[in-house]
Amino acid sequence: MEIGVIGKPNVGKSTFFNASTLSGATVAGYPFTTVDANKAIGFIRIPCPEQELGTKCNPKNSKCIEGNRFVPVEMIDVAGLVPKAHEGRGLGNKFLDDLRQASALIHVVDASGGTDFEGNPIPPSSHDPSEDVHFLEEEIELWFFNIFKRNWDKIARRAQIEGRDFMKYLGDVFAGLGFREKDIVEAVRTADVNPDKPAEWSDSDLFTFTRILRKLSKPMIIAANKTDIGITEQNIAKLKNDFPHDIVVPTSSMAENILVSLAGSGAIRYLPGDSNYKIVDETKITDKHRKALEIIDKNVFGRFGGTGVQECINKAVFDLLERIVVFPVEDENKFSDKEGNVLPDAYIMEKGSTPRDLAFKIHSEIGEGFIGAIDARTKRKIAGDKELKNGDIIKILTR
Ligand SMILES: Nc1nc2c(ncn2[C@@H]2O[C@H](COP(=O)(O)OP(=O)(O)OP(=O)(O)O)[C@@H](O)[C@H]2O)c(=O)[nH]1
Ligand SMILES: [Mg+2]
Prior knowledge:
Layout: E1 2-6, H1 13-21, E2 38-47, H2 50-53, E3 63-65, E4 68-77, H3 92-98, E5 102-110, H4 129-162, H5 166-173, H6 181-191, H7 203-217, E6 220-225, H8 233-242, E7 247-250, H9 253-264, E8 268-269, E9 278-279, H10 287-304, H11 309-320, E10 323-329, E11 347-350, H12 355-362, H13 364-368, E12 370-375, E13 380-382, E14 393-398
Parallel strand pairs: 1-4, 1-5, 5-6, 6-7, 10-14
Antiparallel strand pairs: 2-4, 3-4, 8-9, 10-11, 12-13, 12-14
The structure holds guanosine-5'-triphosphate and magnesium ion (MG).
């Protein structure tokens, strides 16, 4: 499961990526700073059950800070995308290729309206960020469409001749694009096209199918960035109004970057996703920092209650991708593994997963030996096919 950070050039993608992964991708105020995609680990933030259970955890696959569990997710920062990228403009095709495996996208737009279509800086409020959402969605859809179109006749004919289940076949042929079979089935149904006769689909059928499949397989959150500039409210209201079905999160990736770096140096106390910070060492705060913090107080915390960066990652995982987090344990009384580590692991799983799925996720041998599970909170046995809930602590029973 990879989360892609995308958008046109110079909107703050690398700044967002660096702030959320604590890595050092190059940031600069001109287009195409990023050429090769950067990959790093970001985190979702959830309450750690240690507090509720009155215990102290020893995390292994995640980290816990002051009762907050940060669970890793892979993130990818790609080159900026300009109009007609699907025809290869800018770094078009390369950028699009880098996105193949992303299961959700965070679309960073410059909500201050201070960047044109090509990523050149222009005076604030001179560009409507809603237009960026339209063009970017269309670029991705046209990219998919062209890939389908190039191969369609061949695969449609082959599927029909060989009498294959076309929806499954399509998923297999384009496995590299990360389409799930259930999304293909849903897109065929919604587009109202005949899966038994794909060779008869018109271009318009194929495009409708592609658009729906894109929405399902690469869902997007809009990060309305650069809120620190202070004149973004109108554009954010317009984005919410123009895209009522999308999640729009006001963000300041620059603020998040400053806050996490000041927290890292011990100058302030701040955790990603906090709605405030506290100065703990005045001597580490320069005049420049102080000025930046004043702006962050006023424009970011004052107006939006946070930098929004953590919120985007959490929403991508929980709302767009509909995941849950489950804590497997081996000792349901101590909530620990065999070595006594309390709440050692936090697994991100698809909603609808069962204890049996969890067993297979831990190890195929555990999955094969699965005979049942215990809810460690209630100490009750639960059925192997019962749907797990977010935050469940589960002991797997094996033969
Ligand atoms: N005011 C403000 N500036 C920001 C913010 N995020 C990024 N910037 C600035 O915007 C410019 C571009 O930032 P990058 O992170 O390099 O943008 P990018 O989208 O990765 O750009 P490319 O790699 O060229 O596509 C830099 O000057 C950043 O300092 C923000 O939240 N607020
Ligand atoms: Mg970049």
